[in-house]
Amino acid sequence: MLNKRQQTILSFITEHGEAKNSQLQELIGDCSSMTLWRDLEKLEEEGKIVRFRGGAQAAAQREDGQGQEINFVRRARQNTGEKESIAMIAADLLLPDQSYFLDAGSTTFTLLRYLHPGNYNFITSAANIAAELAKHPNYDVTMLGGQLNANTLSCSGPQAERMLQEINIDIAVMASSGYSSGSAFTSGRLTEAELKKHVIRKAFFTIMLLDHSKLLKRHPFTFATLDDVDIVIGDASLPVEFRDACALHGTQFFSASDGYSPDERIRILQELLIKKSHPA
């Protein structure tokens, strides 16, 4: 049976997906680090969490015998119209003969259906995206290794970060679990947030995919702000306040209702790439 402190720790980790030890130490107050260590050990022994260096994450929840991957399937069925519109715009901006990082996520997975013919070089951390891309003989696919998150089907951790050191990325197509004005783009897992940070630092140019359901959702780990993103592709339901924030930070915003044609969006992308190549 768990004591009140252990229940508090478990509730926090379950709600947020994972947590740093420093967060948990602050949560439980005056208890020592050894007490926290023993609490986490007990929770892990009972199969409720999985510890990693510097923190812990919620254990996979089994549903219908299929594991947490069912959560990805469920998300893929939500806001499908918005995801389709975002994916089509994003795919139009991915021109052949470039090196692209594709982040894990249901919207990113959707854009695979709309890629234009040609030779592409793709890097991804998502197992399902890598498997889908591998069906095409003209795609050169590199998958980052690491710990697989059954909820997002994404690999992350030190192995993935080390692989990135030897990889050049022209454009990173990123996804976010949430966005709020105070915390910007956030993720529920520390290792995934750290990997996203590394990708954005390595990439010459960054595109963020964001539907309105992610707005005002605040997860524990911030991995980027609008200053780190060159283009946001959203849906028509994102409010004018968000679009104004993009403009304030010099971030281009695209959506199905932006009034641009596909050719105009490509022209704007090319202008932004030239501007970034030759800063004033």
| Average pLDDT rating | 88
Gyration radius (Cα, Å) is 20 Å
Helix content: 40-55%
Q: Which word captures the global form? A: globular
Structural class: alpha/beta
**Order of strands across the biggest sheet?**
6-5-4-9-12-14-15
Number of helices: 11
Order of H and E elements: HEHHEEHHEHEHEEEHEEEHEEEHEH
Number of E strands? 15
Proportion of beta-strand residues: 15-25%
Poorly predicted spans? 61-70
Distance between the termini: 63 Å
The main β sheet shows up as: 7 strands, parallel
Describe what this molecule looks like in 3D.
41% of the residues lie in helices and 23% in strands. It is of the alpha/beta class. Helix 8 packs parallel to helix 9. Mean pLDDT is 88; it is low at 61-70.
Which helices and strands, and how do they pair?
Elements: H1 4-16, E1 18-20, H2 21-28, H3 33-45, E2 49-52, E3 55-58, H4 69-76, H5 80-93, E4 99-102, H6 106-111, E5 120-124, H7 127-133, E6 139-143, E7 147-149, E8 154-156, H8 158-164, E9 169-175, E10 178-180, E11 184-187, H9 190-202, E12 203-210, E13 221-224, E14 231-234, H10 240-248, E15 252-254, H11 262-277
Parallel strand pairs: 4-5, 4-9, 5-6, 9-12, 12-14, 14-15
Antiparallel strand pairs: 1-3, 2-3, 7-8, 10-11, 11-13
Keywords, separated by commas or semicolons:
3-stranded antiparallel beta sheet; single chain; 280 residues; alpha/beta; 15 strands; 11 helices
